[in-house]
Q: What sequence folds into this?
């Protein structure tokens, strides 16, 4: 039956192809070899108003429609000028003055100037956590909140804008460069109101043209872009193809030019093919096993350390990441300033693990649940299989782990309630700052949000809060190094990997440099 | 017949009401707060609380249900929590995509399934019969996910005959009128794009057709075998009628009723159950629309989406019931 159907399909296809092969594939060849880039990704965006979202799928599109005052360097999170050409910081670290780029226009033809910057920041500060979630978490709340960092944003003249802070904020410039804080056209915001997210207007290299939900977002070249001679592409199309293997098939067929989230196991299929190239996104993530510090034997630090000794990270990396990851010893990747490289990881040592378990009063091990992530992420390409490998590791020291999994939203909900014993999870950094890893994931303030292990240490809390306000880079890094020592000793996690997310694209793509944050700017991308 | 039809249509009301209640409670029984899911892993507690309130999810369940029912009665399917758009506006393009795909799949399934079943019965215990029934068994148990990827690999990549996924070539998109692209391209008089749509339809509809095709073939075969044993068929053959006429005219008419029932049920199932096919072929259909909504705990979309599918399902089966009487005059609805 199947065979018959396929035969029918083939014959129909032949009839179809006979007529239109020339035109359809001809068109494909023509446009892809020139100036339209089709980017295949797993999901669709939620909204194209970057200030209102937290999902990566939205931000990777808005990054190309909007500009921020400062931007990150091509391959790391060091800040560089963008809409602001230069900036000065007062000695007390409370006043930031930005000189703005002149002659820049929004896509609707209105002028970009200091007033526009003030308008945008006022809009966010007057909002709330529901409307502008990232603003609150990066700048300590909103206008009437005690904890709000920004006291005032004012236009000194047409092209000078000044931020006055209530207290120093060390990662302020890095925060300003985050894609959610892109400057949007005030006229368009007034015009579209709630619908601005479907009609985004910025100053970026590409102009929004069309959004067909769950299918594609089409952007077109901004011919008046302030970076002269750019962008190179005429059109940039984001298409959603949910399945990683199907997306690879679409790339191999030439329907898309570039794809993200290549399965590490599919790497070989592309690597040897001269028509394609692999892009490696610099790692700014961590995949880990959380050990909930409030549950059963895991309350005991020695037990958590024992589990750390029992995991063979290298074997896991070879088996499930095709070698495209490095073993993690700290909760943040080495590229982040403040990383403590002096820390020694718990080596893979089953005898030591058993010894610690015996010392903790569990000479014969114990039983626990191990939760496996139900969705693939670059830092955890196959949660179920990695959980099975860990299960085998733990079994060797007598710890019987039962693998459990839930649908993703349920998974996170139950984790936030502290219902898991051990669980797999990970994190991709937003701005390349240590605070965005250590405070966000392991401080006691983050219990109920992203500290799913319920780990709480007062000394660590004191250090992390102090580090938020220290502006001396060296002193700040020392604090973070100390924090990592405490975390290592307390072992609320088994840090597993910092993975290298893989992308694959046509061999003739030039100028594409995947950014560690996961939001790529396509200004300089072209076809050879 | 008319009164029967009216009675059946009226019966739809309590069914849908019950349905809405079941769906309403089932989705609320799953853990996971929509506000948390929408705002993502990185949202603060305040943000989640604020959005929960804004969405009215902190109200008692009966208030939420009555509000929902009230707007349904006004023909308002609600607003998507995630996109903020009216579901009645948003749902049609997805539904159209699914309708087109399901229809294509059912045409393949019925044409091949019914004929294979007939020929198998006609030449019972022949090599054709054995092969067809083994293939039907494989078809029923085929993992669609695997089949879809294999189809892409063979027909799109290796043979380069057909596109891998999507409804259209994104580089030369179709201007939607009705969102039924076959129709839209015809209306626009664009045969090139029409062929493009047909090409995009083939692989997913074959994948989707596999299971119903196999089921239809098996049912047709057994139903035909039963009829072909009856006296009137023997008489017809004794009178010297050609075998083709005996099979396709006399037997089929009497054997078709159970087949029709299966076709009706399968069509209904395809409408809501095409999620796997839609995912592999990135087909923007209603199955994925609702599936994504479940991921986001987008309650209104899940509720209204299921309700729309259920309504179509009920009406397809109503049509099938009415067809019985047209095909078999012995069936009366009075």
A:
């Amino acid at each position: 039956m199947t065979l018959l159907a396929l035969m029918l399909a083939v014959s129909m296809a032949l009839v179809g192809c006979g007529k239109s092969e020339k035109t359809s594939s001809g068109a494909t060849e023509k446009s892809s070899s020139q100036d339209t880039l089709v980017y295949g990704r797993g999901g669709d965006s939620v909204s194209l108003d970057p200030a209102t979202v937290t999902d990566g799928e939205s931000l990777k599109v808005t990054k190309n429609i909007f500009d921020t005052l400062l931007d990150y360097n091509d391959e790391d999170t060091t800040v560089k000028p963008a809409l602001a050409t230069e900036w000065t910081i007062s000695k007390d670290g409370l006043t930031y003055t930005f000189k703005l780029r002149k002659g820049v226009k929004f896509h609707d033809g209105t002028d970009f100037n200091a007033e526009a910057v003030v308008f945008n920041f006022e809009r966010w500060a007057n909002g709330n956590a529901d409307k502008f979630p990232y603003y609150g978490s990066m700048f300590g709340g909103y206008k009437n909140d005690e904890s709000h960092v920004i006291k005032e944003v004012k236009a000194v003249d047409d092209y000078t804008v000044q931020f006055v802070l209530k207290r120093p904020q060390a990662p302020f410039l890095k925060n300003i460069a985050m894609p959610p804080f892109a400057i949007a056209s005030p006229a368009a915001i007034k015009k579209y109101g709630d619908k601005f997210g479907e009609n985004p207007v910025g100053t970026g290299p590409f102009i929004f043209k069309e959004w067909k939900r769950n299918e594609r977002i089409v952007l077109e070249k901004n011919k008046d872009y302030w970076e002269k001679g750019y962008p190179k592409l005429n059109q940039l199309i984001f298409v959603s193809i949910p399945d990683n293997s199907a997306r690879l098939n679409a790339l191999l067929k030439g329907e898309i030019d570039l794809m993200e989230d290549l399965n590490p196991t599919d790497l070989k299929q592309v690597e040897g093919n001269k028509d394609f190239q692999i892009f490696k996104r610099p790692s700014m993530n961590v995949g880990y096993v959380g050990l909930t510090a409030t549950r059963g034997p895991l309350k005991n630090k020695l037990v958590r350390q024992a589990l750390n000794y029992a995991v063979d990270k290298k074997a896991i990396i070879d088996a499930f990441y095709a070698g495209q990851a490095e073993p993690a010893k700290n909760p943040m990747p080495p590229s982040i300033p403040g990383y403590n490289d002096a820390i020694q990881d718990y080596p893979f040592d089953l005898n030591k693990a058993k010894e610690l378990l015996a010392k903790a009063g569990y000479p014969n091990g114990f039983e626990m649940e191990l939760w496996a992530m139900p969705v693939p992420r670059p830092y955890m390409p196959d949660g179920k299989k990695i959980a099975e490998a860990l299960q085998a590791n733990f079994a060797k020291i007598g710890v019987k782990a039962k693998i459990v999994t839930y649908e993703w939203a349920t998974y996170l909900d139950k984790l936030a309630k502290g219902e898991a014993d051990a669980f797999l999870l990970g994190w991709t950094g937003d701005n390349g700052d240590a605070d965005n890893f250590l405070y966000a994931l392991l401080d006691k303030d983050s219990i109920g949000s992203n500290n799913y292990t319920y780990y709480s240490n007062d000394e660590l809390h004191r250090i992390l809060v102090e580090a938020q306000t220290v502006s001396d880079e060296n002193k700040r890094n020392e604090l973070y190094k100390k924090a990592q020592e405490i975390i290592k000793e307390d072992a609320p996690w088994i840090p597993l990997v910092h993975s290298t997310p893989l992308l694959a694209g046509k061999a003739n793509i030039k100028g594409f440099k995947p950014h560690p944050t996961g939001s790529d700017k396509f200004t300089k991308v072209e076809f050879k | 017949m008319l009164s029967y039809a009216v009675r059946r249509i009226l019966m739809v009301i309590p069914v849908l009401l019950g349905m809405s209640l079941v769906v309403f409670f089932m989705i609320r029984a799953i853990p996971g707060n929509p506000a948390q899911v929408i705002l993502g892993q990185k949202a603060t507690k305040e943000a989640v609380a604020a959005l929960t309130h804004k969405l009215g999810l902190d109200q008692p369940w009966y208030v939420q249900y009555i509000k929902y029912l009230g707007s349904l009665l006004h023909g308002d399917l609600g607003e998507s929590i995630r996109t903020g758009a009216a579901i009645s506006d948003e749902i049609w393009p997805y539904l159209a995509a699914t309708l087109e795909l399901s229809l294509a799949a059912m045409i393949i399934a019925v044409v091949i399934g019914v004929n294979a079943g007939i020929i198998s019965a006609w030449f019972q215990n022949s090599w054709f019969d054995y092969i067809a029934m083994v293939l039907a068994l494989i078809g029923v148990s085929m993992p669609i996910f695997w089949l879809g990827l294999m189809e892409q690999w063979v027909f799109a990549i290796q043979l380069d005959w057909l596109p891998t996924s999507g409804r259209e070539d994104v580089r030369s998109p179709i201007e939607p009128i009705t969102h039924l692209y076959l129709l839209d391209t015809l209306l626009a008089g664009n045969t090139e794009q029409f062929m493009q749509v047909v090409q995009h339809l083939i692989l997913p509809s074959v994948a989707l057709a596999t299971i119903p095709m196999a089921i239809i073939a098996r049912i047709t075969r057994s139903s035909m075998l039963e009829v072909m044993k009856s006296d009137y068929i023997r008489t017809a053959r004794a009178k010297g009628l050609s075998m083709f006429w005996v099979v396709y005219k006399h037997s089929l008419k009497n054997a078709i009723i159970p087949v029709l029932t299966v076709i009706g049920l399968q069509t209904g199932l395809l409408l809501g159950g095409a999620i796997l096919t839609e995912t592999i072929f990135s087909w923007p259909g209603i199955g994925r629309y609702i599936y994504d909504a479940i991921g986001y705990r987008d309650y209104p979309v899940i509720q209204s989406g299921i309700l729309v599918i259920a309504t179509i399902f009920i009406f397809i089966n109503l049509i099938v019931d009415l067809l019985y009487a047209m095909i078999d005059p012995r069936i009366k609805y009075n």
